[in-house]
Specification:
Distance between the termini: 57 Å
Order of helices and strands: HEHEHEHHEHEHEEEHEHH
Number of helices: 10
Bound molecules: zinc ion
Strand content: 5-15%
Number of strands: 9
């Protein structure tokens, strides 16, 4: 009997140790449910930096608002000066991988490359990211293992503006992570926008005005939102060593493991997930809906985009 108990204890220790090596994912409902002393709001901008980001920075400065930018390494490489300006003006910079691939469709090595290249695009500029948001909100266990190697927390969002499709008529009516409309004065959370759309950047003054009217007491960075937890439970976040304290670069020892899924051999990085994946995402988790409008965005030469066939049909 005693040996049995020892075995059970050893098993539990093993399970817990395996679990602990994974980076923790901060999802939308967790963000919304976190106990805060006030209604904090985070404006996050994905997929940039772009030629529209300087205008966004001007607007944020005029309103004394700091935001979090989840940058693509490929865009950073092409707009280094803009990325550095974002950093210099006190905003938070996080990684959105390198080329916006659907990580779940990549094998371990390809995933590593996407995350590593995105990470290095920032660190080459002296920017050490703490957070990573996987494109389309898609990730799997391998993503978490790799993110952990780079000291990155995987984070999503709690309120999707769907600015890729059209701008909301009233930002106070955006659905929460739980799918409801916030009561007057209760608005808070982590908002998803994209600074590759001029219309989004043009609309940021209204975003700030309407969200304030809806209850946002302060706009903070994502890291500040996490740190502002009224009751910071250890498992939630910020208990791991930030990369900034240990910026050494992990080395990929190939092959680490076999791919669990067919490898995407497409030579051209695609920004579009497969339809079945999209369906799965819509059924299971928040979806970062990204529509790349060729008329309103200047992209690096190597970027491969496909125009949307319909204005109302998501193009990912
Ligand atoms: Zn994105």
């Amino acid at each position: 009997m005693r040996n049995f108990r020892i075995l059970v204890c050893l098993f539990l220790v093993y399970v817990l140790s395996v679990h602990c090596v994974l980076a923790r994912v901060i999802g939308g409902t967790e963000m919304e449910d976190m106990p805060l002393d006030e209604n904090l709001c985070v404006l996050t901008f994905d997929d940039g930096p772009s030629i529209f980001t300087p205008q966004l920075l001007d607007t944020l400065k005029a309103h004394d608002v700091r935001a979090t930018f989840f940058m693509l390494g490929r865009m950073v490489d092409n707009y280094k000066d803009i990325a550095l300006r974002v950093e210099a003006e006190g905003h938070e910079i996080a990684s959105h991988t390198y080329a916006h691939k659907n990580l779940k469709r990549l094998n371990y090595t390809k995933q590593w490359e996407e995350i590593e290249r995105g990470y290095h695009s920032l660190t080459d500029l002296g920017i050490i990211p703490t957070f990573m948001r996987p494109p389309y909100g898609n990730y799997d266990e391998r993503t978490l293992q790799i993110a952990n190697e780079f000291g990155l927390h995987v984070v999503l969002w709690s309120i999707d503006s769907k600015d890729w499709k059209r701008l909301p008529s009233d930002y106070s009516k955006l659905a929460s992570a739980h799918g409801h409309i916030f009561a007057p004065g209760e608005m808070h959370g982590v908002f998803l926008f994209h600074d590759i759309h001029k219309r989004t950047v043009d609309d940021v003054p209204r975003v700030i005005r309407e969200l304030k009217a809806a209850g946002c007491t302060r706009f903070v960075t994502f890291g500040e939102y996490m740190a502002a937890l009224a009751d910071p439970e250890p498992p939630l976040l910020l208990t791991r060593i930030p990369r900034s304290q240990n910026p050494s670069i992990p080395v990929l020892d190939l092959p680490i493991r076999e791919s669990l899924e067919p490898q995407d051999e497409s030579p051209v990085p695609s920004l579009l997930p497969e339809k079945d994946t999209l369906h799965d995402q819509l059924q299971t988790k928040p979806q970062e809906n990204v529509q790349y409008n060729l008329k309103s965005i200047a992209l690096p030469a190597e970027t491969s985009l496909e125009p949307s066939s319909s204005k109302d049909t998501p193009s990912f």
